[in-house]
From TrEMBL:
Presence of the UniProt keyword Endoplasmic reticulum in the record: no
Highest taxon above the source species: Bacteria
Pfam families noted in UniProt: TetR_C_11, TetR_N
Keyword set, alphabetical order: DNA-binding, Transcription, Transcription regulation
DNA-binding region: 47-66
Organism from which the protein derives: Serratia inhibens
Gene Ontology MF term list: DNA-binding transcription factor activity; transcription cis-regulatory region binding
Annotated protein name in UniProt: TetR/AcrR family transcriptional regulator
Chain ranges of the HTH tetR-type domain: 24-84
Length: 204
């Protein structure tokens, strides 16, 4: 059987891309390949050609969807973070915050989570200003998404802590990262509940 030329493969990708599920499958394959390269080899190895080869698609397909490396790296982090840490809706603000922090803790303890963190450090230390900016934008988007926890509380008639949400989230999340990655102290439910209670009580 004759193999398709690069031009024929690109044309085939374009046709299949219009058939609904193909587009989603290509995107997932590319992001998985990019994540694997980023976590195993670092940001400098994340080229369109390397990703395309591992994903089994034409390089032009990757270029068309992600014109620059910064967008590709940002999408990898966003996709991975969203799959591992979702926004809970348990019925109360305190419980939502607890479940959110528990998911972050579980992510940081997991092998994939640790590689994600290492990849983020590698990417932001690559010297590529566009990459660094893209990673910052991802974290900012994640904080904005997390503020939905407070919006849900408002709808239930609870305090929404308007204007204080990011500060609360940073104060709750930072000790988790520090304990898991630096001091390796335990992060159990008792610790998280105590922190949530203390910090919310301190809010005016």
């Amino acid at each position: 059987m004759m193999r398709a030329t690069p031009e024929e493969k690109e044309s085939l990708d374009a046709v299949k891309e219009r058939t609904g599920g193909r587009s989603a499958k290509v995107r997932e394959a590319v992001l998985q390949a990019a994540r694997q390269i980023l976590m195993e080899q670092g940001a400098n190895a994340l080229t369109h050609r390397n990703v395309a080869q591992l994903a089994g698609v034409n390089a032009s397909t990757v270029y068309r969807r992600w014109p620059d490396r910064a967008r590709l790296i940002a999408d990898v982090f966003k996709n991975t973070a969203e799959s591992m840490v979702r926004i809970p809706d348990s019925g109360s603000l305190s419980l939502d915050l607890l479940q959110f922090l528990q998911m972050i803790t579980a992510m940081l303890y997991s092998a994939e989570g640790r590689k994600l963190v290492q990849g983020a450090i590698s990417a932001t230390s690559s010297g590529d200003d566009m990459v660094e900016s893209a990673i910052r934008d991802v974290w900012e988007q994640r904080f904005q998404q997390a503020e939905m926890i407070f919006e849900q509380a408002v709808l239930r008639g609870e305090e929404g802590y308007k204007g204080q949400r990011k500060g609360i989230l940073e104060t709750l999340i930072a000790p988790v990262w520090f304990r898991v990655l630096i001091t390796q102290e335990p992060v159990d439910e008792e610790y998280l509940v105590a922190n949530i209670s203390r910090i919310l009580k301190q809010m005016p």
